[in-house]
Amino acid sequence: METNQRQKNMSKSESLAKLMALEVEAIAMGKQIKNEAAVARQELADRQRKGLTGDAAIAHYNEWMQRYGMEHLKVRKEVES
Fold first, then answer.
1. Torsion of CA 37, 42, 44, 49, to 10 degrees
2. Cβ distance 61 to 47 under 8 Å?
3. pLDDT tens string 9-68
4. Residues 6+ apart with CB under 8 A from 75
5. Is the pLDDT of residue 79 over 70?
6. How many Cβ atoms from other residues are within 10 Å of residue 21's Cβ?
7. Residue 3 and residue 47: Cα distance in Å, rounded?
8. Are 40 and 49 contacting, i.e. CB atoms less than 8 angstroms apart?
9. Distances from the Cα of 50 to the Cαs of 41, 43, 60, in angstroms?
């Protein structure tokens, strides 16, 4: 009986540790998204102030994403075959 209780307690502590790790990850993701949104707002304001449209706007956006380490958000044009 005592062994079963230890296993339950260990399982609870493992579950708690996993939940705490998930919390840390979720907080980090929230901070990252907040930072990305701030950069995107600044980029948009700058692009609109400069009156950029079309390919120039895409290039401007991609430059900002590159500059701020957000390459995963860059616009990728499909290669025409």
1. 170
2. yes
3. 768 889 999 999 999 999 999 999 999 999 999 999 999 999 999 999 999 999 999 999
4. 58, 61, 62
5. no
6. 10
7. 65
8. no
9. 14, 11, 10
From first CA to last CA, the distance across the chain in angstroms is 70
Per-residue confidence (pLDDT) for residue 11, from 0 to 100: 86
pTM beyond cutoff 0.70: yes
SS3 readout for the chain: CHHHHHHHHHHHHHHHHHHHHHHHHHHHHHHHHHHHHHHHHHHHHHHHHHCCCHHHHHHHHHHHHHHCCCHHHCCCCCCCC
Query: Residue 42 is which amino acid?
Result: Q
Question: Do residues 61 and 75 lie in contact, with contact meaning Cβ atoms separated by under 8 Å?
Answer: yes
